[in-house]
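Form 7-S
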Amino acid sequence: MRKVKIIRLQKTLTLFAILLLTTQSAVAQFDADKWWLADEPLLGFVAIPAGSFPMGSNPLIDPMAFENERWSDSRRQGIVEVPLFYISRYETTIAQFKEFVEDTQHNVSDASLEGAANFPVASVTWTDAVSYARWLDGKLRGANDLPIEIKRFLDEGGRVTLASEAEWEKAAKGEQGSIYPWGNQVQQGMANYANDGVLAVGSFDCSECKFDLADMSGNVWEWTRSPYQDYPFDDTDDREDLASDALWVMRGGSYSDEANNIRASVRGAADPGARRPFIGFRVVISKQ
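Output:
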């Protein structure tokens, strides 16, 4: 009985420390007149420059690497070239998703709309996430005051969608390929993990995280547009076919995961119809 009490006390102290850290970090601001996107010059989208990065894990550097992160029987990692794309700084929020649902009458689970407006939306299927992305794409194209940089990229062939596995991983680990978005060692105060529930997006001030993105580790798993298949990665195999019965890759781990599952190379997968309180998404603008 004493051991149980100690564990509960430790969890309480950990949660208190997390809450203290989040109150000290900058609170993300959102614009109600811009579909609740981030109140930033590029609506919260962050440019990820074109270039290569090492995809997958090297167990000599990362002893927690899983077998499905291995590039092939003979190679631990592969070098993947990714064109310029833009990724949302934050996971898609309940307010953003609710705006989509109210505008389209898209049928969703009641659970996906429960919670604070700036919490990440969860309990959404892969098809829900794809539908939101397509809706937002239309809204951005029809806007009169879209940021010039974003408008140009859309006009040149970009589209709002979910990230491919390669896009997501490059954004999370950077060109050099760190284990976590902030470096090679797990650190408290950088992400919401080993916890009992979600927190508001951007709760942690992770200035060391690649490209200054929030919650690439923890909070909620994030759907991607890539079907789950063995490496090596090939973006010509990626598709957005709503009739497909493939498992779809999700990335980043969640609030309930331990340090091994919030690494930047971790690969999860789920049925496209799965609704879980720990699965959400973020969007990108991509030409792929």
